[in-house]
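Re-running the complex after MR caught last week's input typo. The corrected sequence lines follow. Everything else is unchanged.
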Amino acid sequence: MQPRVDEIWDWLDQVPDPEIPVISLVDLGIIRDVEWQGDTLQVTVTPTYSGCPATSVINFEIEKALRDHGIEKLELKRQLSPAWTTDWLTEKGREKLEDYGIAPPSPTKGPERCPHCGGTHLERISEFGSTPCKAQWRCKDCLEPFDYFKCI
Amino acid sequence: MSADLFEFLCRMGDNTLILGHRVSEWCGHSPVLEEDIALANTALDLIGQTQLWLGLAGEVEGQGRSADDLAFLRDAWDFRNVLLVELPNGDFGQTLMRQFLFDAWQELMLGALKESSDARVAEIAEKASKEVAYHVERSGDTVIGLGDGTEESHQRMQAALDYLYPYVGEMFESDAVDAAMAKAGIAPDPASLRDAYDARLAQVMAEATLSIPDDRFAHAGGRTGRMHTEHLGHILSTMQWLQRAYPGATW
Ligand SMILES: [Zn+2]
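Corrected-run output:
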């Protein structure tokens, strides 16, 4: 019997993002579609950044997780458009990011508050951070640096 | 048409491939850690865009060549990048000046390509333009910061602009390939982007207190493949070495 699509979404929600393992691939918003095409499971994935080195690892992790759940016929489809946006992060994902010390994306083009102390006196160190999706900021209240998941 | 489209896609992909490789040469050598990370991330975006452009080029060509085949198994005369992107890094200021001169062009080009009649081209442009928005913001800010900085940084940035400006014109040249792309609604005539580019350049250079050279002479020959600078061969010998020494080697 074929597993239901919502069950498969739950499985994918257990697969951590390889670079920010506190959130899942579903939280990240890169799984665009899960669908049965006859006896083949088709999973549509969109890249975060076109050069993100995690992309091939992500595909590998998806495949591994679904095979572990007994899916045999699997097809991963890459979808470029509509391009990935940080608006697709789940609410649960945003909360987990902040707990982990990464400020979630904000439409104001900068973090709303320091993920460590909640302070709002912040300054940008660099538009680019440890991964393509992050920028480096510093809190002037607690003096700690932190990553900001930048809007795209 | 498909030969012209292949040529156009190679021009797009070779620009990002060669510049991405050049910028990656800074990895571990930048003046400060934040800049090192920023340059590495920019290089990574450019290489990612290369995979998309050259991947589509291989598909359009229909000879079974992958993006990797095109990147690693063509020789210098088959590359179609503009000369600007193959020029040496020079100092940090020269690298960022080159980046800004290219980013400002790429932003306009991708903006137009988002409306391409070829959905595959439009999709790549949509993806890449989000990344390039960050590149141009940073390279523009850095050009302003260094140009309007110390006496030394100002002098170096002016020297970088004087050296690189004669390579700007090639990005706006048009030939039969461009005419075919424009006619099919796939890509804009590059010449049509020049006014917007000049306006952007004038605004940033004024803020950076730098003077744009009057002479509009343009070195060219890269995007048509007629003649590259001596620097391209050296880049390729580093970049392609592994595939040449161990054909078919995989990760
Ligand atoms: Zn704080």
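None of the earlier attempt is carried over here. The CA atoms of residues 184 and 244 of chain B lie 38 Å apart. The first helix of chain B runs from residue 2 to 24.
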